Protein 1
Amino acid sequence: MLRQLRLIPILLQMNLRAQMEYRGAFLIDRIAMIITYASSLAVIWLLVARLDTLADWNWGELALLYSFHTLGYAIGASFSFTQMRDLEEQVRLGTFDALLTRPMSPWVYLVFARFNIGYVSHISLALVVMTWALLTIPIDWSIGWVAYFLASLLSAALVTGSIMTLLGAAALAWTRSNHLYSLYFGFWELSRYPLNLFPSVIQGILLTVVPLGFMAAVPVAVLVGKPVPLLGELAPIAALLAGPALLGLTALFWRYATSRYQGAGG
Amino acid sequence: MTLLISARAVSKRFRQPRRFPGFLGALKSLVTAEYTEVEAVRDVSFDIAEGEAVGYLGPNGAGKSTMIKMMTGILVPSAGELSVLGRTPHQHRMANARDIGVVFGQRSQLWWDLPVRDSFDLHRRIYDIPAARYADNLAQFSELLDLTSFLDRAVRQLSLGQRMRAEMVMALLHDPKVLFLDEPTIGLDVVAKDAVRKFLAKINRERGVTIILTTHDLQDIESICPRLIMVDQAKLIFDGALKDLRASMGTRRRLTLEFATDPGRLELETARLSSDEGLLKHYQIEREDVSLVDVLAEVGRDRALKDIVLEEPNIEEVIRTFYQGRNAAAVSA
Amino acid sequence: MSAYFAFAKSAVMTQLAYRNEVWANMFGKVVQVFARVAIWLAIYAGATSIDGISLQQMITYALLGGIVTGAIRYETIISMIGRALQTGDVAVWLLKPVSFPLYIITSELGRAAYRLVVLVIPTVAAVALVYGMLPPASLFYGAMFLAYLALAYAIIALISTLFGLVSFWLLTSFSLEWLMQALLNLLSGQFIPFWFFPKTFGDIAAHLPFAWIVYYPAAVWLGRMEQTETLIYFGIGCGWALLLGLGVAWLWRRASTRVIVQGG
C-alpha cells in the first residue's frame, strides 16, 4: 500500500507535463473560469447592493461563504470530479479494464494520472475573495478559530471529493451514472447560499441525503457566529465530522462497486 | 510441462436491461425494468502449459474477450474454476497482475501526449523492475521491433503500427510469464502485422513466454500459435493443434492440371474432377493417402500435360468448413 | 428540411433510451426551480413588494426563466461544434447536403423540445401549483410571450453556435462554454430581473441580445411594457437574431474554408 504512495508524485508529474502540452488553451480556460466564477459572485453582489442583506447575511459574510465554498469544492474536486465523471466513458470503452490488470490500486492511478490542475483558477479567485472577506468581517482571531477554519475547510473538501467519488463508483456498479451529476450540481447551486434562505425541507436534504450544506453553509455560519437551522448546537462538530464520515462511506462503496464491476462485466 | 492456466467448466453470465423497439417502446422503458440474461461463456474447460502459444478464435460475441478478462482478473466467473499461475485471478489480482502482460488491441495504455519512453518508465516503476533488467529488456525489444527511432516521440505522433509495437514492448518489460493479447493486429498494415507476428513468435520460442491471443486474423494463428481454441456461441468447439484441424477436415488439396491440347473430359479415381475448362482442369484430392505422384501416374505420360499447380487448403477454408460442418450437424441433429 | 426534422427526432429518441437519466434530470430540475423560488421568498420575507414588483410577480418571473434556460443546453452546442472543428470530423459534414451548424442547432432544439415537454413544463407546473403563478397579463401578452420564447431559443442557439465557431480559432471550446455561462449569469436576467439592476448597468444590459433570453420574455408575460413597446422590442430582438445569424454564416464560411484547406 505504501509503495503505491511513491507512485503518486510520478503520476502527478507526468500528468502536469501532459497538460502543459496545451499551454495556450489551458491559460484561456483558466481565465474563462475565473471570469465565470466572478460573475456568479457579481450576481450575489447585485442582489446585496439592492437589498443590503440576504437572509441576514451581509456582503462580507456572503463573500466569505462564496469563497469558502469555492475553495473547498476546488480542493476536493481536483481529486475527484473529472476523473470520476470520465469513468462512465472508460467503462463503456473498456479502458478501465487496463487499470485492473496492473499491480496497483485502480483508484490511485485514476485519480492522480488524471489529476485536474485546472482548479487552480477556482483556488486563486477563492483565495483573493476570501482574503478580502476576512479583512472586512469583524473576526475574533484566535488559534481555536483558525484551527476550526482549516479543519472545517478540509472536511468540506472531503465532502466534495467523497460525493464525486461515490457518483463515479456508481458508474462502475451500474454503468450509467452521469445523470446523477446533474442532480448533484442542482443542489450544489443551493449550497452556495446561507441555509436559512431555504424552506426546512431543502435544509434537511442539504444536511442529510445530499450533505452539501457542510461544504460551506454550516461551517461558515459557525465561523461568523450565525445560528444554524436544524443543527443548532451540533453544527460545529457536525461540520468537522461530515467529511471524514463520508470518506469512510465512499471507501466502502468504492470497494463494493469494483467487485460489482467484476461480477457484472461492465 | 507445468500447467500455467487451468479452466474447469467456466461460465459467465450477464444481466442486460431489455430495450424495447420504437418510439413507444422507448417511452415504455422509462417506466419498466426487465432484464435478459446473456451467457457469454458456457462450460469452457482447457489447460494451457508453460511456454505454449494458444490462439483463441471465434466470431464476434462468441465469448473471447470475456474469457481473457476472466483470466486477467478483470471479471469473476459465474461458475466453474479458473486458475492462472496457481492462483484464482480475481482473488489475487495484484499478484496475478505482476506475472502477466496484457495488450488490448484497440485501447492504448500509453500516455497520449508524452514520449513513449515516459510511459515505459512509469511501467518500470509500477512493476518495480530492477534497473539493469529494465535497460536490458528495453534495449533488446527496441531493437527487435525497431522502436529506437521513435522512443522519444509523443504517442500522438505515432502511426497505429508504431503504437502497437510500443504497447507490445511495454507489456513485456516486466518479464511476465503469460502475455495476453486481445486483437493485437487489428487495423495494422501488412508490414506492421508481420513485424508483430515475428516478434511474438520469437518471444514465445526464445523466452518461453506463454502467449494467449484472441484474433479475427487467421494469419496471426498461422504465424504464432500452433494450438487453437475455438469458441462459438459461448461454447468451446475445438481445442487442438492447427494441423489436427486441417487433418480432421480432410486434406482436400486442390490440383490444377494444364494441358497443351484438350484430352477431353478426364475423370480420375485418385482425384475428383471439380471443373473442366478445356485446357485447364481442376481436381480435388480428397483422400489423405493419395499423393501427387499417384494422381500423375493415373493421368499417364501421353496426355500432353503442360503444368501442375497443387494448393493446400488455407486456414480460412479450414475454419469455414469446420463451422459449416458444425452448423450442418446442428441443423440435421 | 425533413433531414433536420429527422435529426431532431433522433435526438429525442436517444434521450428516451436512458430512463434513469430522465428521472434524475427531472428531479434535479424540480430542485433548482424550487430553490430559485425559495430564494425570492426569503428575500421578500414580509415585504409585499420591492421596487413595485410583487412577490407573485417575482415568483412568476423565476418560473418563466426556468422555462427558457431549463430546456436548452447551450454548452452542448458549443462543445459539439468546437469538437467537430478541432478534430476535423466536420469535414464529413462538408460533403453532405446539409448545413453542419443547422444540424447541430436542430438536434439540440429537438432535445430542448423534449426536455421542455417532459421535464421543464411539468416541473414548473408543479412548483406553480405550490407557490402560485400569475397568468399572462392579457391575451396579447400571452401570445407575444410565445413569440418571444421562440425568439429566445433562436438567440440562445445562435449565440452558442457563434461561440462554438470561435472556439475553432481559440482551440478550446471549454473556455467559451464557461464564458457563455458568465454572460448569461449577468446579462440574461435569469437570476435577477433588470429592474433590480443599478441604472447604468441595467441600461446597457437591456440592449444586448442576452436580454431577450430571459428578461424580455418574462417581462412581456408580466405585461411590464406597453403594447407598442412590446412589438418594437420584438423587432429589435429579431434584428439581433438576424445579426447573429449573419455572424454565424460568416464565421462558418471561414471555418469550413480553413478545414478544407488544412484538412482538419
Protein 2
Amino acid sequence: MTAQAQLEGQETETMTVREAIRQGLREELARDDDVYIMGEDVGAFGGVLEVTGSLYEEFGGEQVRDTPIAEAGYVGAAVGAAATGTRPVAELMFSDFMGVSMEQIMNQMAKMRYMFGGKTEMPVTIRATEGGGMGAASQHSGTVHTWIAHFPGLMAVAPGTAASAKGLTKAAIRSDDPVFVFENKMIYEQKGEVPVDEDFVTPIGEASVEREGEDVTVVATQRLVGESLDVAEDLAGDVSVEVIDPQSLYPLDTDTIVESLQKTGRMVVADESPLSYGTHAEIITRAQEEAFFSLDAPIQRVGTPDTHMPFSTPLEQEVLPTGEEVQQAIERIA
Amino acid sequence: MADYTLETEQGRLEALRRMLTIREFDTKAGHYFADGEIPGFVHLYIGEEAVGVGTCAALDPDDYITSTHRGHGHCIAKGLDTKLMMAELFGKQSGYCNGKGGSMHIADVDSGMLGANGIVGAGPPLATGAALSIDHQGRDEVALAFLGDGATAQGQVHEAVNMASTWDLPAIFLIENNQYGEATPVEDQHNVEHLSDSAQAYDIPGVTVDGMDITAVYEAVREARKRARDGDGPTLIEAETYRYHGHYEGDEQNYRTDEELQMWKDRDAIDAFKERLIDRGELTEESFEEMRAEVEESIADAIEFAQDADLPAREEAYDDMFNADVPEIEQFANRPLTDGGSDGGDGR
C-alpha cells in the first residue's frame, strides 16, 4: 500500500518519531493493564534516549518498571512473564546489548512455542535502538536486526517514518508472537504525520510504498527511507524513483517489492546493517526468485561495509551508508 | 486430583506413589533409550525423587515451576500424565509437545510446568518472569525454579535471583545439588561450603536441606512459599541429593566410585520415606508392594500408549512457529522439491 493511501481519511498530527513511539506505548499501556514496560532507566529518568519520557509519571512503576542492569535476566523475565499471562515490552536501550541477552532470545523466546507444540503464546515486545551517526562507537551503534530477522521464531520490524514508528510499536505489543522493534536513533527527531486514532496499527508483514516511481525501485529501511526520499526528489525529472519501506523485516512483504521490480526492472537495497550475509541478501534473493526475468540491471546494495561503527567522525562517515550512496547506486544502473 | 501434601495420610501415600512413579518411569525411559526406541538424549532423575516430590507437594496446583534438562521427575511431581510424557519421549504426535520437544523440553503450561530446559541456568529468569506476571496481576500463586548445582555458576541465575529479591517477587529458587555439574564435582566448580550461602548476597533466606529426606524438602519449600506469598520475596533452597545414573544415559561415570554411589543408595529417599510411613502405621510391606505393582502397571501402560501412538506427520514440522500466519513458513512448507521444468513444476 502507498504511504499516502494509509493516511487517507485519517486525522493526523505532526510529531517526531520519538513522540510517535511514546504515543504508541502510551495508548497500549492505557488500553491493556497487562502491558508494561521494563528496562534500564525507563522509569523516572525517562529513558536514556528519552523515549519513555513522562510515561512513568502517567502510569506508575507497575507499568513502567526500572530493571537492574541485567539484560539476560530481564529479557528472560520478560519471556517467562509472556508465557504466563502478561505482555511485557522490554527496552534494550542499545541493540548491541542484545549480545548479553542472546541466550534467552534464541533458546527460550524464539523456541518455546514451537518446542511446546504451540501450547504457549509469547506476547513479548523488545525495543532496541540501532545505528551509527552520533559518535557512539562500536558497542553503541550496531545495526543487528538481521540476527533477529534471520532467527526462526522471532519477528523483526524497523520503522522509517513517524507513522510506522507508532503503528509498528502498537502492532508489536498487540501481537501474540515475539516482535523486536528496531529504532534507528538518528531519526528520533524526524517529523511526520501520524494518525491519532487509538486503533491505528501498521500491520506486521506489510511494506509501504513511500513514493511511487517508474525507473528504479529503492527498498530502504529506517534512516535510509527519509534519505532515499530526498534523493528521489533530487533526481525527479531525471530518474523516476520508487521508494519502498519494508517496515517489517520478518515477515517480509515480498509481493510489494516484487511488483515494484516488475514495473521498474532496477533495484537498490539500502539498509544500515553490514553488507555480507544479511538483510540485503535476503531481499535481493526473494526479488530474483520472483522477478528474475524483469531485471534490467544487477541489483545494487548499500550498507555498512562489514566493519564495526568506528568512533572518530571521518571514520564513521566513511562506513555509514547515506543517501549519497543510494544516489550513486541509482546512477550506476539507471 | 488426589490430596497431595505431606499433612495428611492420603497425601503422604500419594507422595510416595509419585516417587515410585518417577523411579519406574525413568528406569523404563533408560531401558527404551538403550534399546534405541527413544531418540536423542535422556537425563534420568533416579535418586533425586524426594526433591521433586517434596517440593511440588508443598506447592499449590496452580503454582508454576521451571525445570531443567533432568525434568521427568519434576513433571511427574507436578502431576503431568505419564502417558503423554512417555509419548513425547518416543517422539509421538500425542505427546505433550506433539513430538516437537522430547525429553529435554516437556512442558505443560496449563499445569504450571513451564518446561524442561536444555540450557543450564535458563530457567530461573523464566521463573522470575512468571513471578512478575503473578505480581502484576495480583494473583496468589508462586513460581519456583528448579536448578542444578552446575546452574548456580551461570550469570543469568544471579540476575534472576537479584531481580526477584529486589522486587520481592513470589519466587523460590531450589538448587538440586546432586554433587556433579555434568562430570565435574561440585567442589571443583564452586568456592562455598553450601550453595545456599549465596543467598546472603541478596539478603534473602538461604537454607540447605537433606534432599534425600522428603519431609525436610517439603518443610523448607512450605516456608519459602509462605514467605513468597506474604510479599517478603524469594528464598534460596539447596537440597543435597545424588543422581544414581550418569549425567546422561551412556555416560561412563569415570568421575565417581562405586563406593560413593552405594553410600547414597544406602540413604535412598524412597526406602527412607517408606520406612517412615510403615513406622507411622500408614503403610505395610504388603500395601507398599501393591502400590509398586500399580505403579509398574501404569508405566507399562504409558509405554504401550507411547509405542502404539502415531508419529507426527512430516508436515507438522511447520506448525506452531508463530501464532500469526507467516507467509514464509507457508511458502517453505510448500516449496517445490523438483525443478519440474519451466512451468515451475508440480511442487510437493
